[in-house]
Amino acid sequence: PLGIAAFDAAGNILWANDAMLAMHGTTRDELARTGASLARATLQELDGTPIPDAQRPSRLALTKGITVNGRDARVLIEGKTAPAEVSITAVPLKDEHGNTDGVLIIHQDI
C-alpha cells in the first residue's frame, strides 16, 4: 500500500491516509493529541547515514518546487522505535498563483 500525507509550507500535517499512519505506527487520535510535522521525522540512507535537511525530498519540493521520485530512505518518527524503509515521492502543492504552499508525500514500503 501507498502511504500518503499532505503537509503545509511550514511542515505541519494536513491529512494522512490509513496506510501512512500504519506504516509509521501512529493513529489519527495520536496525531490529534501530539500534532505531526516533517520536523518529527528523521531521514537516513538505507545504511543509516543521515540525510541532510536540504536534501530531504520534502525540503526539495517545498524550497525548489521540484518533484522528487523514488528516493529510498529510512524514516524514523520521533517517539517511535522502528524505522520504516520506504521509497519516497514528494510533490510540491501549488496555490492559484503557482507558488509552492505545501507538499504531498508518498511512502511505499521497500
Structure description:
The chain is an alpha+beta fold and 110 residues long. Helix content is 19%, strand content 42%. It contains three helices and six strands; from the N terminus they run ββααβαβββ. A six-stranded antiparallel beta sheet has the order 2-1-6-5-4-3. A hairpin with a 5-residue loop joins strand 5 and strand 6. The model has no long low-confidence stretch (mean pLDDT 89).
Mean model confidence by pLDDT? 89
**Into which percent range does the helicity of residues fall?**
10-25%
Extended strand count: 6
Counting DSSP H or I runs of 4 or more residues, the number of helices is 3
Provide the gyration radius in Å: 13 Å
> What topology, given as strand order, has the largest sheet?
2-1-6-5-4-3
Silhouette: globular
Summarize the structure.
With 110 residues, this protein is of the alpha+beta class.
Structural topology:
Blueprint: E1 2-8, E2 13-16, H1 18-23, H2 28-34, E3 41-44, H3 57-64, E4 68-77, E5 84-94, E6 100-109
Antiparallel strand pairs: 1-2, 1-6, 3-4, 4-5, 5-6
Q: Which features characterize this protein?
A:
110 residues; alpha+beta; six-stranded antiparallel beta sheet; 3 helices; 42% strand
